[in-house]
Amino acid sequence: MEQQNELVLKVRNLRLYFNTHSGPVQAVDGVDFDLRKNEATVIIGESGCGKSSLAKAILRLLPRNAGTYDGEVWLHDKNIMKLDDESFRKEIRWKRISMVPQAAMNALNPVLKIGTQVAEPAMVHMNMNEEEATKAAVRMLEHVGVPVDFLHRYSFELSGGMRQRSALAMALVTLPDVVILDEPTSALDVLTQASIMNLMKRMKKELETSFILITHDIATSSELADNVAVMYAGQVVEVSDARRFFTKPLHPYSHALMASVPRLRETIEPEFITGQPPSLLNPPTGCRFKDRCPKRFEKCDEEPPTVLVDGDRKVKCWLYV
Ligand SMILES: Nc1ncnc2c1ncn2[C@@H]1O[C@H](COP(=O)(O)OP(=O)(O)O)[C@@H](O)[C@H]1O
Ligand code: SF4
Ligand SMILES: [Mg+2]
């Protein structure tokens, strides 16, 4: 087997449900995946499958109506789910694991200059004084390709790409072990998307940081991904290294995702996945993908186990049992 990089984050059986008047929404329902040093694990799946909830569960950013919340999140050799809230806030969030939330570039503070915003996490979470934090902010802004004189500008004076780079600098200024990027390019035009993906590739090489990239866009993710976890209806249905995933996806849902990508050099029309993902209030029993699966058979009315295929790939589907 190939030599693998050191394991940084290990998520096991993570669950986060939301209480509603109609019952619990099973947004994250028993999720497992790994992240290694200087690598990116891409979490991919359609809108509403629980990706942002997974990010919140890892960072313990729980809404008021959070219900069931359990499982294991190992950061190196520590299960951080066992920490009390105060220790989690002081030791983990932002210092060791940070996030660029979905639509972060539109959530920058309009009344604070960019430099002040990027310096703030360093002051709050790394106990730096203003001068040290400003230096760290300048270093990080340069690193992500924001010109230094932008330090004194306000977010509304910046282009979308520059705002997203600034949001990335805020997440990286504490030099965390892990950065979670929630749909970092979805609000940007294609050229800016490509430049942000290139930037993240460079960051992955240059910094001691690992990335969790959350996206519904399988095409842009392929550039950065070392590993892929496919999410469907609150669950992970396939985990694989990127090389084998992109050449030969295993799960029927992964096939459908791949077939939906337009290909510039080929004449094959992209195929859209028919039907809707199920409600997470009352997900179907058995395989959650069964109502949309072209390969469905009798067995699929029972919950499929997660099985190992090709050595270390994981797939939750009866076809592989
Ligand atoms: N606070 C909440 N209360 C109830 N339901 C929620 C809450 N937050 C998200 N959801 C629901 O959980 C599911 C997963 O949402 P989300 O994690 O945002 O998915 P994604 O990021 O993949 O689009 C959706 O059905 C969404 O409506
Ligand atoms: S378990 Fe059955 S329904 Fe589910 S993905 Fe596999 S073949 Fe399709
Ligand atoms: Mg989301």
Observed structural traits:
eight-stranded mixed beta sheet, Rossmann fold, 321 residues, globular, alpha/beta, binds magnesium ion, 9 helices, 29% helix
Could you give a quick summary of the protein structure above?
Helix content is 29%, strand content 25%. With 321 residues, it is α/β, with parallel strands linked by helices. The strands form two sheets. An eight-stranded mixed beta sheet has the order 6-7-8-3-9-10-12-11, with helices on both faces. A four-stranded antiparallel beta sheet has the order 2-1-4-5.
Secondary structure blueprint with pairings:
Blueprint: E1 7-20, E2 23-36, E3 40-44, H1 51-59, E4 66-75, E5 78-79, H2 85-92, E6 97-100, H3 114-126, H4 130-143, H5 160-172, E7 178-182, H6 190-206, E8 210-215, H7 218-221, E9 227-232, E10 235-241, H8 242-247, H9 252-259, E11 306-309, E12 313-316
Parallel strand pairs: 3-8, 3-9, 6-7, 7-8
Antiparallel strand pairs: 1-2, 1-4, 4-5, 9-10, 10-12, 11-12
Bound molecules: adenosine-5'-diphosphate, iron/sulfur cluster and magnesium ion.
Mean pLDDT: 93
Contiguous uncertain segments of 5+ residues: none
End-to-end C-alpha gap: 23 Å
What's the structural domain tally? 2
**Major pleated sheet:** 8 strands, mixed
Read across the widest sheet, the strand sequence of neighbours is: 6-7-8-3-9-10-12-11
Q: List the bound ligands.
A: adenosine-5'-diphosphate, iron/sulfur cluster, magnesium ion
Listing every helix as H and every strand as E from the N terminus to the C terminus, the arrangement reads: EEEHEEHEHHHEHEHEEHHEE
Instruction: Please name the CATH architecture of the largest domain.
Output: 3-Layer(aba) Sandwich
Tally of DSSP helical segments: 9
Number of strands: 12
Q: What portion of residues belong to β-strands?
A: 25-35%
